[in-house]
Amino acid sequence: MQRIVVIGGGITGLAAAHRLTELAGTNSLSIDVTLLEATGRLGGSIATERVGEFLVEAGPDSFITEKPWALKLCERIGLTHRLVSTQSAYQKIFIVHNGQLVALPEGFFLLAPTRLWPFIQTPLFSWPGKLRMAGELLLPRGELHDDESLGAFVRRRFGNEALERVAQPLVGGIYAADPDRLSLGATMPRFKEMERDRRSVIYAMWSAQRQRAKSATSAETGSGARWSLFVTLAGGMQELVDTLVERLPDGSVRLNCPAKQLKLDPNGKSWQVTAGDNHVIAADAVVLATPAFRAGDLLSPIDSNAAGELTSISYASTATVSLAYRREDFPQAPNSFGFVVPAIERRKIMACTFSSLKYPGRAPEDKILLRAFVGGSLQPELFAASDGEMESSVRGELAGLLGITATPIFSRIWRHANSMPQYHVGHEARVKRIDGALQSFPTLTLAGSAYHGVGISDCVRTGEEAAEKVFARILSTL
Fold first, then answer.
1. Residue 135 and residue 200: Cα distance in Å, rounded?
2. Measured between alpha carbons, how far is 260 from 346 in angstroms, rounded to an integer?
3. pLDDT digits (tens, 9 = 90+) for 350-363
4. Is residue 200 scored above 50 in pLDDT?
5. Can you tell me the distance from the alpha carbon of 448 to that of 46, in angstroms, rounded to the nearest whole number?
C-alpha cells in the first residue's frame, strides 16, 4: 500500500487529502492518506461560530466563482444546494473620503472607470485627478518589465489619486498589502496584459464589459444555476471544512501532530516524516500544504536554496472584529456590503463588511452583524493591540463613520497571525526558482496561498494539483 502524507490541515491540505481519496477510488488503488495538523482543529483560518441567532465567520466568508475550483469541489461533494449568493439589493461598496462614506462610482472596476457619467459625478477625485485618469486613454504602452509594483503601475497609468483613494484600499482588502511592494504580475496580471494587448487599460475594460454583457444576455436564455461573483454556504464556510473531513478515510487525520522533520530516505525514493511525539512516518510521497516559512523550515536539510526562497516570502497579520447591533442603533440604516478605508485616511480599520446584508441568514431581521478588519502590512502595530484596545478602537471608528454609539450585543475578535502571504515584486520569479530547485524531488509537492493566489478557490486548486501530481508519480512507479 502506498502512503501519502499531507502536512497542513487548512483548506489546501484538506482539498489535497480529499482529492487523493477521490483519485484512489477512481483508479481502484489502495493508498493510505495521512493528514497532519499541528493544531487541535482543521480548516486553518476558516471557522464559523453560532452566537444565538447570529452566524459569525472568523476568517474567509466566501469564495469567488470566476475561479471555478472551489465551486466544482462543492459540486463533487454535494454542497451545491447549500450555496448562497450575495444579496443583490446591497451590492454597493463605499470608500471613506475625508471622513465620510462615498459610494464607489458605478462601473468603477478596481483601478479605473468603465462608465463615464458616474465617474464625472463622484466626489472621490478632484477634477485634475479625473482628467489624469481619463488621460490614460491616450497614454502609450509603458516599457515592458519583468515585473513592477501595483502602485507603480497605477501611478503610471492613472495617477496618484487613483492609487491612494481607490486602488490601495480595494487591493488592501484582498491582500492586506502595501501596493508599492505588491507584484502586479503575481496579483493583477490581467491589467498588465491589457496594457500590452490593447495599450489602454480603460479601453480594454470597456471592451471586456461589452463582451460580458453579451455573455450575460446569452446565459439568460440558458438553464442551470447561476451564481453571484462571490458565494458562501448557508451554514457558513465551516460547512466546506466539515464536509471534506467527513469524506476522508477514518483515522487519516491526526490533530495536534506537527511535522517536526522531513528526511529523504537513503534510497532516494521515499520520505520519513517525524511528527507529534517524535514518531516517524514512512511515506511514498509528501504534500506540503503549510505556510511558506514552515515549508522552508522543513526543507532546509533537504534543499537549502528552496528553503531560503520559501522563508523569504513575508506574511502579514490581520484580525477580524465582529460586532452585532440592533438596527435601531444605526442613525441611518446601512444599504451596502460595506466600505474600505484608504491608508491616507489614517484610521484604525482597513475595511468593514455588513455581513448580514452581504449574505442572508447571518442575523435576525431586526439586527445587523458587521465585521471590521484590522492590521495588515501597513498597520502591523494595530494587530498587536490587546483585545480590549482593538475593540475600543474599532467601535470608535464606527462611531465616527456610521454614528453607532450603542454598546454592541456581542463582539468577537479573531486573530490570524502571519496569515496573508505578501506577493512582493519578483514573486513569480521566486516561485519559479522554488519549483526548479524541487524538480529533483518528484514525490514532494508544495501547495497553498503563498504561491499562485490567496483565495479559497486558489488554495483548492493548488491542493488538488499537488495531489494529482504525486498520485500520477506513484501510478507511474507501479
1. 10
2. 42
3. 999 999 999 999 99
4. yes
5. 14
Residue 34, SS3? strand
Task: Please choose, from the candidates 11, 13, 37, 69, the residue with its C-alpha nearest in 3D space to the C-alpha of residue 289.
Answer: 13
Strand-pairing partners, residue 373, are 320, 351
Tens of pLDDT, residue by residue over 134-148, are 999 999 998 877 899
Q: pTM for the full model?
A: 0.94
Give the whole-angstrom CA distance, residue 316 versus residue 105. Answer: 30
Residue pair 17/46 in contact (Cβ under 8 Å)? The answer is no
Query: Mind giving me the DSSP string for 272-332?
Result: EEEETTTEEEEESEEEE-S-HHHHHHHHTTT-HHHHHHHHTS-EEEEEEEEEEEEGGG-SS
pLDDT band for 149, please (50, 70, 90 cuts): very high
- CB-facing half-sphere around the CA of 454: CA atoms within 13 A: 21
Per-residue confidence band for 222, with pLDDT thresholds at 50, 70 and 90? very low
Inter-residue contact 150 to 179 (CB < 8 Å): yes
Cα 387–chain centre separation: 24
Higher-pLDDT residue of 214 and 53 is: 53
Burial environment of residue 462 by CB neighbours within 10 A (0 to 12, 13 to 18, 19 or more): buried
User: Is the pLDDT assigned to residue 224 strictly greater than 60?
Assistant: no
Phi and psi, residue 63, nearest 5°: -140, 160
C-alpha to C-alpha distance for 134 and 386, rounded to whole angstroms: 45
| DSSP, res 448 | S
CA dihedral of residues 305, 310, 311, 315 (deg, nearest 10): 160
**Residues 416, 179, 354, CA angle at the centre, nearest 5°?**
50
Where residue 216 falls among pLDDT bands split at 50, 70, 90? low
**What's CA 333's distance to the chain center, in Å?**
29
Cα gap 361→55, rounded to integer Å: 7
Give buried/exposed letters for 44-60 (b at 16+ CB in 10 A, else e). bbbbbeeeeebbbbbbb
CB atoms within 10 A of CB 179: 27
CA–CA separation, 368 vs 335, rounded Å? 11
Around 259, how many Cα atoms within 13 Å sit in the side-chain half-sphere? 31
The identity of residue 79, as a single letter, is L
pLDDT at 469 over 60: yes
